[in-house]
Model the fold of this input.
Amino acid sequence: MKQIISLNVNGDSFEVTVSPWDTLLDVLRDGLRLTGTKKGCGIGTCGVCTVIADGKAILSCLTLAIECVGKTITTIEGISNNEALHPVQKSFIENGAIQCGFCTPGIVMTAKALLDENPKPSDDEIKEALAGTFCRCTGHVKIMEAIKKVSP
Ligand code: FES
Ligand code: FES
Done:
């Protein structure tokens, strides 16, 4: 049975009608038209659907929308400041960590969650954070460089 829930996304509150089995990913993309979050495998293996919920990177394809009531959700659309890109986004561009860009929103959100919690991660900590994400174009070398350049 469908129900109306309230979701806090990128600082705004939205009322959306969902079924109990609707994923956060589908509600973000189809319900709220926040299509920056990409849909890849849909089963938790590629990481392109990563968003931040209450400060933690989560896979929105494995998260039910109804689980997110009362949480603070941030998507790729919510991290830039008006026209200014987030430092992680800028670093990805400057360090060649983007090619087709399909993985980029999810990996940027993964990197942001890591750096918010641990501003100076070690290589191993970056690798661990990136373990659930795939980039078929660049691999992770350029992406790691870009993340390290944002560290103080
Ligand atoms: S679409 Fe969520 S992990 Fe692939
Ligand atoms: S830039 Fe193409 S999949 Fe990562």
Observations:
- The chain has five helices and five strands.
- The mean pLDDT is 96.
- Residues 29 and 35 are 5 Å apart (CA to CA).
